[in-house]
């Protein structure tokens, strides 16, 4: 196997792989340590993570990333667009700030995560698990509008991230979402771990909806822990704390076939390692990041 087999795949990592879920949390490593360690692990690309964790002044962030040989691949936002036009102004206020920093850092993608239907920590049900037909229409139309506005105002491409405990999660719901949205405005961020968590097959998705795959998140799930999580109906936060997302190659899906399928699409794609680890001991991420980068090189990436 040679590196050229994965010549179209650009590997990076994210604050999530260092246990970072919030802009500020005493259990998270300081942002300078994250930048030092992600560079030391052999990655060239990073995501912004939760807005405000890394410096939001682009001049400061550019200086800090460039001196470590890093570049930004994407920013991330959470949205509740299924709630209809009434949430647009609030959504845009949040999204536009993240989009401005993302574009100023030279990135071209914004990862969009739908809002959770239950509380990520307590498991409190916040709204119905299934969307109505009207809510699906709101979600599709709102996401298309977001894609159009971000393209026209910021030159960004949105990639929607199917995520556990959201309404865009299972194979059925992901297909419904893709079929309802304009390919010119909306692409997908396929997170291999979340899709497996929700019962999906990443290789099948790439082969079926290849033109819609605009970005990858690489992670794996521990099948035994996942079975217990499902049996206990745990929310995603406690499931992560239990270790449901694990270091590759210990879990599923196998990442080499995913990367092979992505390479066959014939387009350049970011593949960002994002091993959910919140909370974690501060010395835990670096060795895992080094081993994961070495493993991905062994896959040709």
Automatic annotation (TrEMBL):
GO molecular function: isomerase activity
Residue ranges of every copy of the Xylose isomerase-like TIM barrel domain listed in the record: 35-284
Pfam families: AP_endonuc_2 (PF01261)
InterPro entries documented for this protein: IolE/XylAMocC-like, Xyl_isomerase-like_sf, Xyl_isomerase-like_TIM-brl
Keywords for the protein's UniProt record, in alphabetical order: Isomerase
Protein name (database record): Sugar phosphate isomerase/epimerase
Organism of this sequence: Streptomyces cavernicola
Taxonomic placement: Bacteria, Bacillati, Actinomycetota, Actinomycetes, Kitasatosporales
